[in-house]
Amino acid sequence: MEIIVRDTLCPHHPDEPVDLVTRLRAAVLDGTLGQVTIITGERSGTFPKSPAPHDAPTSRIPRSDMMKCVVGEDRCARARALAAQLRHGRGSVLILDCSCEIRPGILSAFANLTTATVLVADRGVLVRRGQVFATAHREGRLALILDSLGHEGDLEYLGTLFLTGGDRALLGDILARNAFRLPWTQAVCQLAQRTHVQCAAQTRDIHGDDVVVGGALAGGSYARTYIRLHPASGLRTVRKEAVGAGAEKLADEVGWLHGLERNARRHFPEVVESRIETYGVSVDLVHHHLPTLRRLILSGDIDEAEAARWARRTLAALRRDVYPVAPLPAPADYVRRTHLDRIRGRLAQAANALPERRRLWTAAEVTVNGVVLRGLRQLVDDLERDPAVLDMLTPERLVRTHGDPHFDNILIDRDNHRFLLIDPRGNSGYDVAYDLGKIWHSVNSLYDLIHDGLVEVDAGDDAIDYAFTSPRLVAFYHDVRERLLDWFLASDWSQDDAHWFFKVRLAEAAHMCSVMPFHIVRDRPDTVALACYARGLELINGFYTDVMAETAKAPVLPGV
Hints:
Residues 217-441 form the Aminoglycoside phosphotransferase domain. The protein is of the alpha+beta class.
């Protein structure tokens, strides 16, 4: 990679150039840099010298043929010199406003990029308001975001631009077409209008260290998740970090991943780095630019047969490589601890997060699509008070489970006929039905459609009407559901447990009744949270009716 420094003086140090040699020495010695060009004004003098002793092998000044100094008396002359260097040079280049912009980790983080990238300060767009940034990525509107560079907007340009070899001449032409008088940030914005330019943000992680963020990701329930340009490995990693209540969950996930045997580990992204400290937990995983099973379905890229096939392959791998680890006896309070208490806790969180809907959360009866259903609290209390039902629903043994294998946590590599599982909950002692319930709340609860806003909701104090807006996708998921149910029955998932599917249905209902708090965002419509609540009420009411009938008669084959 080549580096071009546009000047050696800037408002941060107007009278004394920064020692560039010291800042670049390590990158030259380890082979990251092959050429350094300094474009300096008349007032800057000659190329800054390093004061380091010549006999220190790790502080030697690089060879003179790797360093070039070009003098430009004014801004136009320096822009002309930059354009010439861009046109005549080859390969990727990192353009810095000043040598003081060379920050720790920036060179190694940018060295392995393959797309034009600008470095900005994170003022909320990239991480805290990651959804806004991600939307801009998907819609290809990065040029609109880059219009705020150099202004008092959300993005503050940090004087660093990476270009691939193919983009060098394009930027040179932009500078020349404007007679080398165009302000630099405007030139970068014009570049973004003619080619794909992505943003990376300089920010701090939970440990207080500087990190370069390449984009925000939808994370877990309590973790902040983003693409990190990892300096040590040169990889793009998925960084997950959490503090407070989320730290323990993330620490469990990290320990769970580190404890996987080789056969199980191959189904998950590789752990690059992890830190578990008293004030926070972080983990870096190898980033795989692959679509999820949910995304393939919603985009129409696969049919029902292929979707069901990927789901079966995923479950078969979990059953073969993850579950068979030292099963534990299930405690007598498993159902209460795992399902019922979780529903109660999340219902309370939803009421606190959306107090204007408190009557709906606490109603003894709620009418959903014209059907009167019992309230969630009453049903949970009744289930807990029935020892026969609890005994029937308590598994004999607990195993190591993924904990969250819904369709958006399954990455699909169609070209290489493989998949990867992401975001495990790190459960070392759960029922297999917990995982199956996650699959079922994709194909039966239709959580995927609700999550992506493919639903309309009208709610009052004690009533919710909802409707899915894509009959085609409803039919698609139901087709996948039937294919999976046939496979479950044919491949002996019941393990001679006549009530196994009731356990799956309880897990599905509990999952659906527990996700509302994660979809409540202040100053935004509560459509998704209300649809999850309505669907959860339908599921748990139907489950309660069927399980009570089951305790009074001989076992029958499970139904949907």
